[in-house]
Amino acid sequence: MPVIAYQSFNANASSNHNLASISQQYFTRRTNRRVTDAGHEALVLPFNPGDLRTPIHGPARLQSIEVLASDTHTVELFGAQIALLWQNLYRAIGQMPSIFVVGELDAEHSDFSGMIPDGGVTIRSHGSSRACQCFTAISQSSLASGISLLGAGEGYVAYEVDGFTCVFVHVPNRIASSRGATEQFYYGIFHSLGLSGRTIDLVIGDTNQSSFNVTASSLNVASGTGNYRNASTNAGIELIDNYNVHEFGTNSAGTQMFDVAVYNSARVRLVGSVAYVSQSANAVTVTDHCGLGVVIEAV
């Protein structure tokens, strides 16, 4: 039963995929203003960027999320967000991620050479012309025989994980704003994967969907089935790394469920519920979208 995880950072459209491309971006700063005005507090777990895979025992430190300063964002803080997602998902789910895809990050850029110093993970970047359309996949090296790249294109990257076909998405806004374009986006992925005899078991990521059911509906239209179901609900989320924080959405305003998982109910069963992490796992806001993790098994 693999654990599949995703979180987008907030990058600009620059052709330079450096630290500046993900630092102090508009929606991150808007997120920070909202959560600090509301007095949100983070439950900061012990973590070690040099060993993502090992659970670290010990109590969480309750800390108010701090107001961003102009020099707050460092490579180390982005690395802490990644390491804390692994620790938080272990506490919530009981397993470390098999694979964690970070949207809007190109870890091949030299600025990020020391961000994830864990020699027990495999890091693979999927570049694009714009920083905001890059992906970085981080998987456990010990599970490498069960994880392989299936394909990638604008707005997505697909991996086989323990026999499941998992598609990680950051749907471009110009596509997400149109129901027809969204259906065509997923139809194109189905077609690409279908050439090798595959179908989609899970879609997870930043969908930028205009309403809650758009992604599941579009997958059903594109596949010609009624099998795709939301793993999330439209009742909002409890953030596992914040103290007593309920959000109605995963975006910077906390109002729209952009970040969701949708699974193929004919092939996959969701184990437990979706676990959501905040934009400020280390009590420092580094992005505008919540992250999420799910566990799946075969029907």
Question: What is the typical, i.e. mean, pLDDT?
Answer: 95
From the spread of the alpha carbons, the general shape counts as globular
N-to-C terminal Cα separation, in Å? 11 Å
Q: What's the total helix number? A: 5
Q: Percent of residues in beta strands?
A: 25-35%
Which class of secondary structure composition applies to the elements? alpha+beta
What do you see in this structure?
By secondary structure, the chain is an alpha+beta fold. Helix content is 20%, strand content 29%. It has five helices and 16 strands. The strands form four sheets. It has a six-stranded mixed sheet, covered by helices on one side. It has a six-stranded mixed sheet with strand order 7-8-9-10-14-11, covered by helices on one side. Strands 2-3 form a two-stranded antiparallel ribbon. The mean pLDDT is 95.
Give me some keywords for this one.
299 residues; alpha+beta; 5 helices; 16 strands; globular; six-stranded mixed beta sheet
Can you lay out the helices and strands and say which pair or pack?
Blueprint (H helix, E strand, L loop, with lengths): L2 E6 L17 H12 L3 E4 L16 E4 L10 H19 L5 E5 L17 E6 L8 E6 L6 E7 L2 E6 L2 E7 L2 H4 L2 H16 L7 E5 L7 H10 L4 E3 L6 E2 L7 E2 L11 E6 L3 E10 L13 E8 L1
Parallel strand pairs: 1-4, 9-10
Antiparallel strand pairs: 1-16, 2-3, 4-6, 5-6, 7-8, 8-9, 10-14, 11-14, 12-13, 15-16
